[in-house]
């Protein structure tokens, strides 16, 4: 009697088809994210603990360089705040700067080559010969980069926010409204990274050359970040305070300043002429006082969510444009 040998049945999850191909192509960049997050976690744990110990040992919690709190006017307090900013504050700013560069790096380093390399080398023909639609191929490639990038950037934003928290707005000198924190300590970072990937992918699909696509992506993502920073104050309703910029509390973001007359007419600081300072202008127009348009700290999350929504909508639009371009132009 002849025994019949059966092929062993593979159990468990085994990636096949496009999933397997995307893993093979993107595995190095996918595995890089846990390494980066782990390194950031080690740095964040040290920075959080060291800054919290310094603040507690020197009794400077909630103290800024200029503070009306009597406890913050005790001898040595201002010197301790200054020393904190020269050490831990600089580290927080450096980390914030690196985080600001993350969307540019991801867009140019991962998004731009995504389709440009395939089109440049002609390997797309082999993939599409395997009964895979153009739409499915593009979406699979985008997902292979976007999913780990979203998870990784979310982890990095959470770690940076946690490291910033002990010194927060006052001691660190890094305001909640500053570019160093606003664009890096919340979901806005994740959405900007996804939009940057969309910019890179579309640039690569249109240009079909990796290096030019990377250069264009750096330029466009930089312009996107600058544009968001410019319009950010107007994404949510603000308040007007009749106080000069120098008298605003540390927790308030004053983004526009000038002079206001009793009837509500506003005069920019240069509205009285270049030769007149605010005091002279106030003397020229009776009853004129300085004003500041401000956002309070409670506006942080509304501003975050609106800007995040804008970037996510842009990412979706860029994805649709990339799919449409490939379907129409790739032949």
Give the arrangement of secondary structure elements.
Layout: H1 17-58, H2 77-100, H3 102-121, H4 124-128, H5 134-164, H6 168-171, H7 179-182, H8 187-207, H9 210-231, E1 239-241, E2 253-260, E3 266-267, H10 278-284, E4 289-295, H11 300-329
Antiparallel strand pairs: 1-4, 2-3, 2-4
GO molecular function: ABC-type transporter activity
Keywords: Membrane, Transmembrane, Transmembrane helix
Organism: Streptomyces tateyamensis
Large-scale geometry: flat
> What number of structural domains do the residues give?
2
Fraction of residues in H or I helices: 55-70%
Any low-confidence stretches, pLDDT <50, length ≥5?
1-15
Radius of gyration: 26 Å
Structural class: alpha+beta
Q: Strand order of the main beta sheet, please?
A: 1-4-2-3
Query: DSSP strand (E) fraction?
Result: 5-15%
Can you count the helices?
11
How many E strands? 4
Query: Distance between termini?
Result: 56 Å
Mean pLDDT: 86
Give the biggest sheet.
Answer: 4 strands, antiparallel
Instruction: Give, in order, the helices and strands.
Output: HHHHHHHHHEEEHEH
